[in-house]
Amino acid sequence: MRFFFLLSAVFGLASTSARAADISVGAGAACTAHSVGEALAIAAGTPEVDTIRLADDQPYAGLALDIHTSVNLVGGHAACGDATPTGNTRLEGTGTWATVAVFGPNGDGVDVRLEHLEISGGGIGGDIGSFGGVAIEGVARVHVADVAIHHNRAIYGGGIGVSGASARLVLERNVDVHDNQATFGGGLYVETATANIRPQAVAVHDNLAVSGGGVAISGGLVNVGSDIDDPATPITGFLVAGNGASGNGGGVHVAGANGMLLADDIVVRDNQASEGGGVFATDGGYAQFASNLTGPFRHCPPSLECLRVSGNRATRGGGVAVRAGGTGHLSRTIVRGNVAARGSALSIADENSTLRGFGLLVVRNRCDDAEPQCDTIGMSAGTARFQYATFADNAGRPLLLFGDGVPGNSRTIVSMDSTLVSGKPMIFGTNGAAPIFAADCVMKDSGAIEGGMGRSDIGPITFQDPARGDFRLAAGNRAIDYCDDTHAPVEDPDLDGTPRGIEGPGANDLGRYDLGAYEFDRVFTSGMEAPR
């Protein structure tokens, strides 16, 4: 099984030395320069990492900044001479070029820091070049903090585009990427490059694209996780919300053999696409939602539900879809309230595609009004594996998973262990090739035992407060202490952080392991949708 945790990469952070210059830009007589271009020319003439401070006493419009030297570009100063930013300085582009383009030459490259800025007006010109709000290429390491990037247009990366194996981007804190447009990656596009996103009030929302309304990854890596060197900044999650794609991947689109999303503390909600309303992985792309529970990493408070795919909409695969060799890995993740005509929660297509769900809660997903008898999980061949999952209160036809692969020409493999299925009398149905279906320690609350189900049963499943979103087991369920450690979980603890295998108050069936996403241990007190 391919399962990744990537430690936070150490990128070179632009910092000043004793000889670095402090260059002020503004209208006042005390300012070192009166334009950003003039300040960049001064910085390029020194070997140090200079700091350019922008005063808000003049407009900065018609910009197409070309940064090819290491520099800290800091806005938000009331006047030249003020050391502490009090707001953000607006940088307005030309509408035909990138407002800020960072290109690092071969060799040591450049280290650039963008801080306290509002970047807009980047566009697409008739020439070949860098477009959008911020374009990063070459040997460049760029850190962004306290920045808004909005109303830009591009082919690749309306808000931010990062390309090239030596390009690095870190979105540190308070970064708001919204209302941008592109063909690929309305908010953010990462091609063969690396982006580290700190889940510290970073949001990509209300952007539009053909593919990847919020984020598009093409052979690159996007890693979402806390900074081990920052023990103080609150973790609120990386929010991908309200984006739209006319094609696939409303929130996130991952493609290419080396294309990876490794996401901890992420919320993907209320996005729309044709396929994969929340997340779409294709052509070897790998999308992973999982918490790194070892080491010094910090996480969102549980009330924020920061591994969640919710409220997304698509024709196929409302929450997550994989196709053409794509892989999805969802660990301790909530998939809730998504909508589609086919596969309201999840979708798998093509033989080489794989979807894995460990400690997964799949609830309250529903059908598009035009297709009231949709399936919760749609398959057109491929492999699906679920372990310690809870499926409940999902609308549509009376089966959980439907396969429609071409008879004789496609392979469908489904395995399910230590799982609860509520409200669906059938787990699997098909009008295509005969599936390979195996289940062990599975409990349904209706229907009959299906072929391939071992050590499984039919019986009542009651939850603590499903009307308020609490799908933890209520006391007295037979699913408590039902299975042995044959399926000792890859993901330990459960969705709440409770260790698996706690001995319950009653007699065991096969062992002390509970079925479903939650180990029976405590009473849920909130049950409400998180505000993000």
Description:
It is elongated, with a radius of gyration of 25 Å. The strands form five sheets. It has a 16-stranded parallel beta barrel with strand order 12-15-19-23-27-31-35-39-42-40-36-32-28-24-20-16. The protein has a 13-stranded parallel beta sheet with strand order 3-6-8-11-14-18-22-26-30-34-38-41-43. A four-stranded parallel beta sheet has the order 10-13-17-21, with no helix packed on it. The chain is mainly β. InterPro entries: PbH1, Pectin_lyase_fold/virulence. Residues 1-20 form the signal peptide.
What are the key terms here?
1 helix, elongated, disordered C terminus, disordered N terminus, mainly beta, 16-stranded parallel beta barrel, 532 residues, 2% helix, 13-stranded parallel sheet, signal
Kindly estimate the percentage of residues that lie in beta strands according to DSSP: 35-45%
Rg result: 25 Å
Output the structural class. mainly beta
The low-confidence runs, each spanning 5 or more residues with pLDDT under 50, are 1-18, 523-532
The average pLDDT score comes to 91
Principal-axis shape equals elongated
Question: What is the straight-line distance between the termini?
Answer: 32 Å
Helix content: under 10%
Arrangement of strands in the largest sheet: 12-15-19-23-27-31-35-39-42-40-36-32-28-24-20-16
Q: Compute the number of helices.
A: 1
Mind describing the biggest β-sheet?
Answer: 16 strands, parallel, barrel
Number of strands: 48
Signal peptide: 1-20
InterPro entries: PbH1, Pectin_lyase_fold/virulence
Keywords: Signal
Region (Disordered): 485-508
